[in-house]
Amino acid sequence: MFNKRSIQDLALAGKRALVRVDFNVPLKDGTITDDTRIRAALPTIQYLLEHDASVVLMSHLGRPKGVDASQSLAPIAVRLSELLGKNVAFAKDCVGAEVEAQAQALQAGQVLLLENLRFHKEEEKNDPDFAKQLAKLGDVYVLDAFGSAHRAHASVEAVAHFLPAAAGLLMAKEINFLGKVLSDPSRPLIAILGGAKISDKLPVINNLIPLVDKLIIGGGMANTFLAAAGYEMGKSLVEKDAIEQARELLARCSGKLMLPIDLMIADGFSNDANHEVVTVGGIKPGWMALDIGPHTIEQYRKALEGARMVVWNGPMGVFEMPNFATGTNAVAHAVADSGAISVVGGGDSVAAIEMAGLTARVTHISTGGGASLEFLEGKMLPGVAVLPEK
Ligand code: AMP
Questions:
Q1: Domains defined for the chain, CATH in brackets
Q2: pTM of the prediction?
Q3: Which of 103, 199, 257, 319 is most buried by a 10 A CB count?
Q4: Nearest of 99, 125, 110 to residue 49 by alpha carbon
């Protein structure tokens, strides 16, 4: 259960809400190519405005080294104005006398967006003096940037010590869904993990194994498990250093782990490579596994049919290449068709759901890939830890 203070617990009328959002959107030549993250922050902004607060928004964008006009948040103020249907003022910096005066002058219902937090190196250092300067811009602090909640940065962590702090609606929703997976799941609970490397996913596997009823494995990381089980993997991506840990996991939890029984293999790492389906024992020398095979898809689909809760992170194959996207696509459909409460995180799985047009049929799509993975690893995120209880 989400037991942190949220904006619904705050008296907001006449207050200035300093809100950390995640507006780290993709930009091409100053044009926003995907505004999903801006849209995801709208419910919180609208809630604050409807409750007669004024709103000061702050975010990072990209990884600038100092001030860099190509990573300015100015285009986001324009897009946000369109989405909100009201003017969004823009501050040329995020700290200092000028922006303090702009924030002071705000009337209830008005919105100000600050310039990129990362133009100041103190942001990523969680610098308390920088955080104190940010705190001057609001009467209350709201954290709604779930995608940044795993970073102990000044606008996420340190600032919360200087103002009454609360979670925004997006933040509360994310933690509610992910928290339910860990602490109060509907059963059977099935986790699906994919992606390139098993080493990246070992912490999440270790945390999820005792909690889940089944753990479905796909993608490059399945190769290391198959190698650990003794199969010849040809030129497939296998992490030799992780084979021992994979072997230990297989010995300890083979009843819960579901691994591919067949694979789509190719004679090169290219969409145009020759490709064919083989059983896991049949990889030809010099060939590599780039997707799960049709029998595996069928088996995974059947398992998901019986699930009441599903959490998915990571593709089943090299889904960027259409010839090796079948497994990821099929799993996206199986998750949507299962009727289970479904929580999808990680850029690639989210992209697969979107590409398949299934967004509306998934219960919760996480806006934070790294943050959701760390949450599922059982780590306390700095941005969650710092929020007071209700
Ligand atoms: P990750 O960032 O660890 O979630 O990995 C995502 C990447 O894994 C995607 O770019 C996929 O192309 C890649 N991937 C998935 N399956 C395989 C595979 N069998 N061999 C190599 N790369 C893969």
A1: 7-172 (3.40.50.1260), 185-376 (3.40.50.1260)
A2: 0.92
A3: 319
A4: 110
